[in-house]
Amino acid sequence: MPDLLTDLRAALGDEHVLTAEANTAAYAVDWRGAYRGTPLAVLRPGSTDEVAAAVRLANDAGVAIVPQGGNTGMCGGAVPTDDGSQLVLSLGRMRRVREVDAEGGTITVEAGVVLAEVQEAAAEAGRLFPVSLGSEGSCTVGGTIATNAGGTAVLRYGMMRSQVLGLEVVLPDGRVWDGLRSLRKDNTGYDLTQLFIGAEGTLGVVTAAVLTLQPATPARATAWVALPSVAAAATLLPLLRDHAADRLTTWELVSRPALELVLAAGVTNPLDSTAEWFGLVELAGPAGADVDADLERALGDAVEKDLVLDAAIAGSPAQRAGLWALRERVSEAQESLGPTVKHDVSVPISSLDDLVARLGPALEEALPGIRPIVYGHVGDGNLHYNLSRPPSLEPEDFLVHAVELSRIVHDTTAALDGSISAEHGLGSGKAAAAAAYKSDVEVDLMRAVKAALDPAGLMNPGKVLPLQ
Ligand code: FAD
Ligand code: MLT
Ligand code: ZN
Q1: Do residues 179 and 168 make contact, with C-beta atoms less than 8 angstroms apart?
Q2: How far apart are alpha carbons 177 and 52 in whole angstroms?
Q3: pLDDT value at residue 1
Q4: In the UniProt record, does the keyword Repeat occur (predicted)?
């Protein structure tokens, strides 16, 4: 493609069209090394106009584009195919916070701004940006919008979808849709903003967004609790809400095997408990709110009802950070066991216990010695039912079982009216599986949307919807 690359260099500047393998390598593989590709080139535009110019040139040449943010995704959505035919378009240079409106409760940011930077800008303005994930130091606004990311405060604030008021998007043909509005109400037809959220870069490139800001919640109370069962974790949600109402921001679950990995990585468990399940609960409110009292009352009630076996409440910011590490470091700690077959499932909260009770024996029967590392956002009915290899199996010998193991997890989830991807999206890794569990009508509608916005099929092809 010499002409296309020449035109792209003219549009973006030589140094922002990377072709040497040493320069493209970091963009060609996901953070786990689970998905690898070979890009034709990596583009690093610095403005919306440059993104539009690059997309237009690629469209004219019939070359596919793969948008990429922080490359922390779980399903290979930001990784190109390995035939050298696709361009990776990194938003990494679009890092400007365009405006913070503390009174109006909005922040306007470019797609490459890292999530933690949005949180910091909000805090500097005396506000809160509530989406929080283990990867917040690297994942971007564009990536979290494109995957509709969840995280650990969804039960109070919703997913990324709930934070977005307006978007600026470069469409697959290179036109720019300026939907950067900060309206709380706008019923003027189809909701185009929501259409691009969770589309994983298959309908266009998000270049900027208007996000909502929330009142700051400097009062925080955090506890780590030992639980008798998963059923207790589910029953605790309404109990915690009865005591704390919408001051309950976080209700997370960690299984004993997941905890052991984090402890091996150097984190300390404040509880001396033999329990098989643990939970992290956090309440947050405005300055002066007595969230400690609410938490103590809730936990006292839970202990009385045998729903909590033991609890440790953070007495300082350092202790709070220590409790959060017990939950947030599981994902990275599991990498120490070699390749992980990841699952990100959700079921109605009342079915969580059933899900866990069915999956354990079914997976053990399919592959004796398999190690389920189960944890997640129990308050959202969302578990990461991740699988590590039996110690006796080499990584390659384990991965040959991946399809069958995932089929068991997904069939069981579907039988309980659940979803096979609660918050990570589909990328290339789960696109076919998701289509298989959807009705023909639902898949047809999705294909119709894709065809309407991207008739040439050049925007992140094969992601979300499998290629036909
Ligand atoms: P990338 O990985 O670069 O891309 C993800 C997808 O978005 C790809 O399909 C890509 O093509 C598309 N995309 C990226 N930027 C754009 C853009 N500007 N326009 C259009 N499409 C774009 N996820 C959760 O939901 N909840 C969690 O709790 C959570 N915890 C995590 C913890 C760890 C330690 C890690 C490593 C990841 C975690 N994730 C979690 C997954 C991941 O961080 C999120 O999916 C995040 O939203 C990805 O953002 P990113 O910028 O890295 O996107
Ligand atoms: C998390 O919640 O820690 C991640 O979304 C889970 C994962 O790594 O599978
Ligand atoms: Zn998660």
Answers
A1: yes
A2: 10
A3: 67
A4: no
| Residue 298: CATH number of its domain | 3.30.70.2190
Domain edge (last residue) among 90, 116, 146: 90
For ligand 1, whether the C-beta of 150 sits within 6 Å is yes
Torsion angle (degrees, nearest 10) of CA 23, 42, 343, 163: 120
Residue 227, pLDDT above cutoff 90? yes
Same domain, 308 and 407: no
Task: Kindly state if the Cβ of 342 falls inside 6 Å of ligand 1.
Answer: no
- Structural domain span for residue 143: 97-215
What single-letter amino acid sits at 214?
Answer: Q
Taking only the tens place, the pLDDT of each residue in 142-189 is: 999 999 999 999 999 999 999 999 999 999 999 999 999 999 999 999
Q: Is residue 462 part of a domain?
A: no
Share of the chain above pLDDT 70, in %: 100
148: left (phi over 0), alpha (psi -120 to 50) or beta: left
Angle ∠(388,389,392) on CA atoms, nearest 5: 150
Strand order of the β-sheet with 106-110 is 97-101, 106-110, 205-212, 164-170, 176-179
Cα–Cα distance measured from residue 138 to residue 340, given in angstroms and rounded to the nearest whole number: 21
Q: Taking all residues of the chain, what is their mean pLDDT, rounded to a whole number? A: 97
198 and 287 part of one domain: no
Band of pLDDT at residue 2, cut at 50, 70 and 90:
low
Same-domain check for residues 85 and 114: no
Q: Which ligand is nearest to the CA of 136?
A: 1
User: What is the crossing angle of helices 402-415 and 352-366, to 10°?
Assistant: 150
Residue 345 located in a structural domain = yes
For 376, phi then psi, to 5°, come to: 150, -160
Q: Which residues contact 128 (CB under 8 A, 6 or more apart)?
A: 119, 122, 213, 214, 215, 216, 217
Asked if residue 210 and residue 102 are part of one domain, the reply reads: yes
Residue 460 lies in a domain: no
Nearest CA to ligand 2 atom 2: 376
211: closest CA among 111, 65, 321?
111
- Distance in Å, CA 377 to ligand 3 centroid: 6
Helical pair 2-12 and 48-61, crossing angle rounded to 10 deg? 170
133 C-alpha to center of ligand 3: Å?
7
Domain boundary among 269, 303, 331: 331
Q: What is the pLDDT of residues 49-88, one digit of tens each?
A: 999 999 999 999 999 999 999 999 999 999 999 999 999 9
Q: Which atom of ligand 2 is nearest to the CA of 340?
A: 9
Could you identify the residue written with the tokens 């079921």? 347
Cα 72 to ligand 1 centre (Å)? 5
- Ligand 3 centroid to 61 CA: how many Å? 38
